[in-house]
Amino acid sequence: MSDKKAPEPPSSEITPEKLYLRRREFIKNAGLFVGTAGVVGGGLYLLGLKRTQPMDSFVPDAGVLPSLAPAQGSSPYDTDEAKTPFADVTTYNNFYEFGLDKNDPARNAHVLKTRPWTVTIDGEVNKPQTVDIDQLLKWFPTEERVYRMRCVEAWSMVIPWNGFPLGELIKRVEPTSRAKYVAFTTLMDPEQMPGQKRPVLDWPYVEGLRIDEAVHPLTLLAVGLYGKTLPNQNGAPLRLVVPWKYGFKGIKSIVKITLTEQEPPTTWNLASPHEYGFYANVNPAVDHPRWSQATERRVGEYSRRPTLPFNGYAEQVASLYTGMDLRENY
Amino acid sequence: MASPPLPWLNPAVLVGGLAPLVLMLIQGAQGELGPNVIEAVLNQTGLLALVFLLASLACTPLKLVFGWTWPIRIRKLVGLMAFGYAVLHFLTYAVADQGLKLRPILEDITKRKFIAVGFIALVLLVPLALTSTNAAVRRMGFPAWKRLHRLAYVAAVLGVIHFVWRVKKDVTEPAIYGAVLALLFAIRAVEALRKRRRTREAPRPA
Fold this sequence. Notes:
The complex is a heterodimer of chains A (330) and B (206).
Chain A: H1 17-52, H2 86-89, H3 104-108, E1 118-123, E2 129-132, H4 133-139, E3 143-150, E4 155-165, H5 166-172, E5 181-186, E6 206-210, H6 211-214, E7 220-225, E8 228-229, E9 239-241, E10 254-260, H7 267-271, E11 295-298, E12 305-306, H8 314-317
Parallel strand pairs in A: 1-10, 4-11
Antiparallel strand pairs in A: 1-2, 3-4, 4-7, 5-6, 5-10, 7-8, 7-9, 11-12
Chain B: H1 9-29, H2 37-66, H3 70-97, H4 102-111, H5 113-130, H6 134-140, H7 142-149, H8 151-166, H9 172-201
Helix pairs in contact in B: 1-3, 2-3, 2-8, 2-9, 3-5, 4-5, 5-8, 6-7, 8-9
């Protein structure tokens, strides 16, 4: 065992105790600062995550989605306004069956199985039947319709739909003289539509039209958009598109179409009758109780634009409502 | 020189509290705020304003329940952050959403109770922000200052109502904030009752 002591360092090299303690305190404080800032920032980030998460990875791969038969020519009803990008049309959706935030459907709708899929057409018709979606697609050639879409929340899009007029299908099942309305029902299956596990709305979603609205040539049953099979979040495999009405009338993932004598119940009207009427025609003169409908924001644009009566389709459809008070029948 | 206790606390809360704003600016610049950027910013700033407002109202209850004193040290900053995000929320609405068009904005505020309550909540926060300095406390006297700053309770209630009326159907999320606020009020109420009982039971001077 050596008795030798380690050489004492010169006192000039020793950190003064006061400084040494301050350095330790500084490092401790720096650690606490970073930790606290991280916890606060991280907590706030998590609280707002659902609303600001980038959605790029949820845009459907257009290369994988089956293409539809090319549309024949353009429709006289097409708008030549700039189309809303595919990525926006497929990640900014209201489809409460898959969640309440706009980006929930793109995230969650993949659990929906759209094949096999049948649609039942019944009620006041001479030929009630249940038809497979692929059979339905064989009956009617699809066409492209570039329509404006106006949501009741005051945003809008321009979407190139692929589909066929609802009137063609109604004609085929031969309505009786008692058929005054058309009622639609969405699939009811909480396993495939997880949002239905919560009683946010009275499931399944139901909608309806008056028969003259239903057979109007503008009214479309859409099976695709941008030339591709309809992505699930947009209402696959079959959805209604009524371009002069607010978007919530455009019921998605339809399993049943019933012609009725009485005005059918409609989901949003049941949920909040003073806010969502049966007709739901786009009308800049009738405000929603919580916001003005006079203007709208086209998705992707920054400034608002004036909303057009009947969403710009007044020339085609205004006559359907002559003699009706559109403030009463909002 | 003795450093102030917890010198890192306020800077850390400031940096952490501004982090979502910085992130939002970065995401916005990269076009990652989704198809409706204005809606995303409106939702985010509104949520942050409400969260900070509730956090500022949680400081006293935290002290009452756990005996912690550090929340009181950040209360002013947290309250000012609430005000800052509320102002950003309003500016996003007035400038970005409505394009500073006065008529629709005034119509919204006067005709729609959903927007009116939000606007009133913001207005109530203005005097609180203006009197947030130590000098203001001294000038006003603490009891008067304290009375004025009870407006934060009203602003928070209005903020929750604004949120409840905004959602279309499912009120779960605003209800959670409402429940937190109710809990904070309950703690204060229990404490006030206890204090009153204590003073009543105290022997009176003969």
